[in-house]
Design a protein that fits this description.
Elements (H helix, E strand, L loop, with lengths): L7 H11 L13 E6 L3 H4 L14 H13 L3 E7 L3 H6 L1 H7 L2 H11 L19 E5 L12 H7 L4 E7 L1 H14 L3 E10 L3 H14 L2 E3 L1 H19 L3
Parallel strand pairs: 1-2, 1-4, 2-3, 4-5, 5-6
């Protein structure tokens, strides 16, 4: 698990700019979706060359949030990255510029739809009421990448909890674009995984500074539990 560090400078700047640390601390679970980004075998199975070391460690936190959000009336969305021959052709500038031949082959072998690497990591815990999205770019929200906006709008979602891997690639890209589209976005500090602490924390600091809130699994689950238990307390006269 990453050692998480929001710098004092970023915390102070964020507090000065917006007046508090967590602008979305009191989010409405019924209008919230947990986005689980790319928790696929290709990114987690150590035997696959594009896998992210330690990514499996965030799975329990993702499952905890998913359970809490479902109980509170929210939506869980499992997002899978596809990188096949079609993407190699129509996203050729990325493949040509950033993926040497052996890397290109590794991505396509792992993430072609139907390949074992494309499938969800088995320790993840999807349930029947969850939603599924396939994206063909790092961001799920960029035009043409997926149908996620249509899905979220149909459910009345205005708040997003971002989890998954890689923190500074697909998770960051998705979070930034979602913020630009006027969603309230919360990065889960210990629910994302990168290749090292430096890259993970660089993303959290950049996003927290001006794009998103950043909260831990414990903070999010505590809020979900408090909201879920409120009706019972009222019914009991508490």
């Amino acid at each position: 698990m990453h050692e998480i560090k929001l710098t004092d400078a970023v915390l102070e700047r964020a507090k000065r700019r917006r007046g508090n640390i967590h602008p979305f601390g009191d989010f409405d679970p019924t209008r919230t979706a947990l986005l689980v980004v790319d928790m696929q075998n290709g990114f987690i199975e150590p035997a696959i060359s594009i896998s992210v070391p330690g990514a499996h460690e965030i799975v329990p936190n993702i499952n905890r949030i998913a359970d809490g959000l479902r109980n509170a009336g929210g939506l869980v969305v499992w997002i899978q990255m596809v990188m096949g021959e079609a993407e190699e052709k129509n996203w050729n500038n990325w493949f040509d510029g950033f993926a040497a031949p052996e890397i290109r082959k590794a991505f396509i072998d792992a993430l072609t739809e139907g390949a074992p690497g494309f499938e969800l990591w088995p320790e993840c815990d999807p349930q029947g009421g969850d939603a599924w999205v396939v994206k063909n770019r790092f961001s799920a929200f960029i035009q043409g990448s997926s149908n996620i906006e249509e899905l979220l709008k149909s459910k009345g979602i205005d708040t997003l909890l971002i989890t998954g891997t890689v923190t500074n690639v697909c998770c960051e890209s998705t979070a930034r674009d979602a913020a630009m589209l006027n969603y309230k976005v919360i990065m889960v500090s210990d629910g994302n995984a990168a290749r090292n602490d430096e890259e993970h924390n660089a993303t959290l600091n950049n996003l927290f500074n001006i794009f998103t809130d950043v909260q831990s699994t414990d903070e999010i689950v505590a809020h979900l539990d408090s909201v879920s238990s409120a009706p019972a307390r009222r019914a009991a006269g508490g």
